[in-house]
Design a protein that fits this description.
binds zinc ion
């Protein structure tokens, strides 16, 4: 877990002004990977009780645009945020409870899924492939098995 000082350096390194909401939002995203906006607001208020919703939204947008935070949005889910950026990892989402976990790159470096037929992509320079694996997490699949075995 980086220190507040290191978060400030991250912000400066991205040419962002250091503000208390930004540092608090960065901290919350580090502490709660794949958290949604509401959970981040709750976590930020633990450190900064009088922060407004708008300040948290603005900080999330600024940090996402600067590449310090990554936004993921599985279909049917609200946006989630994480601080693990720049490695093009993927996510697995449980269809039942919505829990999200990281999946390392499928094959080698980004974009780790090289399309078979490249003619359609002529002129494009690929840098990322975003994959979401859907299924049931261990808890939910265990629950399903025990339900079907009375
Ligand atoms: Zn689940
Ligand atoms: Zn992730």
């Amino acid at each position: 877990m980086p220190t507040a000082e290191e978060f400030q350096q991250l912000l400066r390194g991205a040419d962002l002004r250091v503000t208390r909401p930004r540092v608090a939002v960065l901290t919350a995203v580090h502490e709660h990977p794949h958290a949604d906006t509401d959970s981040i607001i709750r976590a930020v208020r633990g450190n900064l009780p009088d922060v407004s919703h708008q300040a948290v939204y603005d900080s999330l947008n600024t940090l996402t645009a600067a590449g310090l935070v990554r936004r993921i949005q599985p279909s049917g889910s609200v946006a989630r945020y994480e601080s693990r950026v720049g490695d093009n990892h993927h996510h697995v989402v449980c269809r039942s409870c919505g829990v999200i976990a990281d999946v390392d790159c499928a094959v080698g470096d980004a974009p780790c899924l090289t399309p078979d037929d490249n003619s359609l992509l002529e002129g494009f320079v690929l840098d990322e492939a975003e994959v979401i694996y859907w299924g049931l997490c261990p808890d939910c699949s265990t629950a399903q098995v025990s339900r079907s075995q009375p």
